[in-house]
Structure prediction request, 328 residues.
Amino acid sequence: MKRRADSSKVSIVVSVYNEQGSLPELHRRITDTMGKLDNLDFELIYVNDGSTDDSFSIIRSFVETDARTRLVHLARNFGHEIAMTAGLDHAGGDCVVFMDADLQHPPDLLQQMIREWISGKDIVLTRRTDNPDAGWFSTLKSKIFYKLLNTLSDFPVPSQFPDFRLIDRKYADVVRKMKENNRMFRGLISWLGVKNQVIIDFMAQPRFAGKSKYGTKKLISLALNSIISFSIKPLRIASYIGIIAALLSIVLGIIFTIDFLTSETYQFTGYGTTIIMIIFIGSVQLIVLGIIGEYLGRIHIEVKNRPLYVAELFLNDSVAGNQQNTMH
Ligand code: UDP
Ligand code: MG
Prediction:
């Protein structure tokens, strides 16, 4: 079903962590592009995720000069996924677009994405075709990341789909109901199972300024989080490892006994085999305990049911009640 552009409002959510170098250019390009879409109302929500550079004051100056811009100022760095959540919570549009602040997601694409939504699509995803910024190491890293993720997770996330997407209000509301602390938007969207979606290909752009915030450590923790929050397969694998180890020890026991009873020179003596078996079983137990611990730790975090973030909202002076504190 076609949507009406003249009575619709689009929310654009941009998560920002130390992006002072890109912000002015980003802001100019987004407002330019959106200006070309006649009759369409929009709001631009910057989420400042505890930046330590000048990002905050730069965004404040955007808010002061433009009534369509708002700033959700998080009290500290909560991470990209929570920053996007905070933006979503403050978005009032009929659809919500998420994008990065480093201009790796070209603002020009907004027009095409919004047109797809107006023509009736519920979700518009984007796919990167090439990443000129990535060296072989980071390409390898992201290959391993997605391979691991898709083998172990129940909701596969294809690679090359960045956090640049449009979600219709009705699904945005469903995503808002998911209150888990450990979240990964890509997984949540794939969990929705929406069929009425479209994919737009685009050429990946190099970062406009600054450095990527995803080092190897963060990537590993993101992979672990997304596997564990979308699947209990690792627990099952742990049980399988236990069963295999048990079978192995029974088989070995039988072989040793037969050998002891039949051969004159008993081969399996000495500390060697004993020590290896103890180490083997010991490590299997530690691995399994570790996997259980990963789940337990997350349950520990989730049952506390803390708010996901602490934020202050800054609006243009012309908008009534222009500052408020929010916690979700
Ligand atoms: N980001 C954020 N909080 C963080 C880390 C990153 O809001 O803790 C933002 C960052 O400013 C950028 C986006 O998330 O707009 C993606 O981060 P980055 O470009 O560093 O990731 P990459 O593109 O290298 O995967
Ligand atoms: Mg980036």
